Records
---
Amino acid sequence: MKRLLSIELQKIWMNKASRILTLTYFILLSFIALIAVIKFDIGPFKFHLAEMGIFNFPYIWHFNSYIAIYFKLFLAIVIVSMMANEYTYGTLKQNLIDGLSKKEFIFSKFLTVLLFALGSTIFVFIMSLILGLFYSSYTEFGIIFSDLSYPLAFFVNLLGFFSFCLFIGILVKRSAFALGFLLIWYFIEGIITLTLRFILFSGSDKYTYFTQFLPLESMSNLIAEPFTRLSAIKNVQSQMGIENMGDYSVNYFTILIVLAWTFLFIYFSYKLLKNRDL
């Protein structure tokens, strides 16, 4: 396992574009901390995000996990390029000639995907913990380590999405076309959702029962938007007579759906590679 992972990491690190994208990804994740310094004082109007409670425990787990998800495209490009380079530079064929089986090859790619997802989660967890300890009004042990289902959902989201990117990379072989396919799939799921919502189940929310099983939709359902959960937003809604009935909890059935897709993406990646003439 260690040997397979070291081979993949060496390939990524030796590729300048992949190295830059990976470093950029983690640098951008750290920029979440800069939200704390956003402050506007215009006469009597004072706006300071850190004082609005976004870094309070346990809310910070929800907020940071949700924001960090939007940076995953950087690593998605790395993963797609990782597979495209295997075909472009012939390293896939060379690895197989050197004695690596196709099953071991796919396993090495999955280990890389797993490492990226786990590394991102640990990075966001540590950053959130530091920010929370510095800014949070609540530092009791029980409060700090409550709502850790959000970092878990963040990890599952990345694992599923990166596995999907790996599958697309193997399917399409070219990074530009693979990223284009990913964009097209977003549109396909959007069309399916619109068809179910406004044609088949018009005037009803039954369409959500079916759309929750779509791969990208299930991933996006893992973490609900956190903004309307803020006490400041709730106060404004209350003054306007708007009752907030949102459910912000992590649905473990959705986690199972994403994990099932992850398994299918890795399985079909192997089947594609196994049946393909290299």
Note: The radius of gyration is 21 Å.
---
Amino acid sequence: MKKVLFLVFIASFLISCCAKSTIVADKTPSWDTFIYPEINFVNKAAGTEGWSIYNRIVPDPEKLIKESILGVVKTLYWSPDDTIPNIRKINYTVEDVKGISAKGGAPPEINIFYSSRWVEQSAKNGGDDKVLYETEGVLYHELVHGFQLEPQGIGSYGTNKTFFAFIEGMADAVRAQNNYFPASNRKQGGNWMDGYQTTGFFLQWLTSKDKDFLRKFNKSALEVIPWSFDGAVKHVLGEKYTTQELWDEYQESLKNN
């Protein structure tokens, strides 16, 4: 009888554990309902070496763009139910022009160009693997500009340095968070207001304080008005923190790198 009761107890215990595991699993946000924008891919660099390389390493541009979109929104938001800019169409072009890449337009339709000349330069520096790594990293950066939130009450990208630092810093923070920068790019110096990688690596480092820092920092654009770095940092991490103190700690952490 004791053996039967013991077996019943074990069975009940296993069922209970499985039920708890199911409940935990169900809390994981599903992105199955996310609605992807229409992708309008256009090659404007036909006949160039850069296009030939790009076409070889990216046989399905639409697939790559959609995979990158999902990576970006999952880094910036918790679920498809969050307040995500409603982009319904992305015009993506490969062009034989100077520069690297840029995003233009605003929801519901944005434009992104990618330079075939930059593809050629990347190939010279490291071959196809380098090109694909750089292409995906640049794509992440530009897609963040489409899907990120924007600070309020402080002007615009062209008129306010804080606005600029937030926009470009977040784009590179998301890129870094998804491992699309070499670790060697992270260096001491600069200021959190510099934007791009200097700000981006700092913001990514702050995920060591809160694993959801990038999501919360992005959302602070809706919640901290007028927006500021210090206001957002305190909003996300607590009143005891200042941007300067965190920056100093971050710089100290880089001394042995």
Note: The first helix runs from residue 2 to 26.
---
Amino acid sequence: MNKPKLNKNISINDFNNWYWYKKELVEFCKQNKLKTTGRKPELTTRIAYFLKTGHAPKESNIKSLKTKNSIQVLPNSMNNPIPENYTSSELYRKYFKSIIGNHFHFTAYMMQYIKATPGITFKQYINEWKKEHERRKEKNYKPDIMKSCEYNQYIRNFFEKNKNLSLKDAIKCWKHKKSQPGKNKYSDTDLKIL
């Protein structure tokens, strides 16, 4: 079965049943005058709504974190709370590197931590980041994978079952999996392609 074209005539079932690259989703949004910003899950939800109703969804009244009005500002004290419009920007990357060191990087865990801890201060963020950095050094530690990172989750699940196979094998199975209809979760039947 061939992957259908992503256009306004695709059925919602076909849309939900195939893997789409973000660039394909953005292009669909452009062609149909839908908002093009956001991560893959947001774009997917927006397109699914459009395919079901024929209308653009009403976007949240909450301003997007990345609007022109959301100016990112460095704190004047580490005891300042992280602002509501916080994004993992280059400005904050440089700020955290200046305090933690060049080994600082943004993580999915810390993004979830910020969302789960309203009013968290920059100092609390830094302390929690350092704790997570230490946990990552443990042999059995597995960091959370964001829901939108299907490839990373697939590769992790592949190696949990196939420690003796290579990354090249995992990628070959992933490419085959996403070219087929259905969910993109690892299954032992994926090995038939090898």
Note: Residues 40-53 form the longest helix (14 residues).
---
Amino acid sequence: MRPTCHPLKSVLTLLCSSLFACAAQAELRPMADSELAEITGQALVTLDGLTYGGFEYTRVNLGAEIDLLTNIDELRLGNYSRNQPNTVSNQPADIRIDNFALGRVDNANSSSATVVPFQVRDPYLEFAFKVNGQGIREVAGIRLGFGRARGDLSGDIHSLTGNMQGLVTGSASTAREFYMQQNNLNAFTCTFNFNCLALSLAGNSEIFSDIQLVKNGTGETTINGQPINRATHIGVPKGASFHTDNALLEPLLPAIASNNGDCTASGLPACFPLLNYKSIFVGDRTQANLDIGGARGVFFSLQNQNVPWQDLASANNKFVATQAGAFANFAKSGEGANALYPFVVSLYEALNGAARVPTCVGGLAKGC
């Protein structure tokens, strides 16, 4: 495997630069023993060790909160030839995002331009080691992760491999309007179309569904028992359907709003090109507090074999299984009413796409 990891190094360099910049502003003075005796605390950098499944892990934890505004021309990880049956596109890399950016700039092309940073807390760098067949201990994988993350992630997403578990939610009337436009219907002709009539009966009820990386055309998330890689689409998985809190409507949705293997639900697209979403808000945009609104368990990893990484967002010491190559983890935590999603997409955005937020100060929205 020959993964391209320069963008990952760029992010690491940026994190380190931020930390060093903060440290450079402080004046170092010796402290008396009496002063030291009154102080307790935790070091900025700590190390954790773990063994699991034949792997040994060393994690370097940075006890810091960092605000980021960064632009990368091309983020390409896992750039090597794949011939596996679960590779669902002809993309050259496991993760390929052009014009990748974290953070945004409000009023970008004015004198009142304001940086709204991508916030991360407790970043860490972790190494996985394993003894190979010759008895030599070698690095099997590396990952960069965050305890909490919140803010705008932008880019032209050509391919993704990993866990991308989000929520799409919106009014059934939004779906009806889109369906009518796509099928040249009006209020009268809609009554003679089954899907349009069903959406009309749903009225303004909120409908929602989990979404994840899927194979275009079918909505499959696995092939021959293996998770798909190099996905170009995200959507409602095959066999899943939209749901609602409307007790009268909910029994009907599995019949009319399911993805039955053709990437449609109620005659509408249920699988959406990743390229449609130029900006995605990671975390809860309604909660400015990073403790409450920050997504947990986000990480990017590179591994030369299948490596299980500990899920630091789980209270049950679960592990995230990754295949050889590059992997992005944006997974939900919790279930049911307690589920916390790393991102939420409106139904309107799912159907029509999401525009990019400016990430540069000045006239350029990207590529600065």
Note: The longest helix spans residues 6-24.
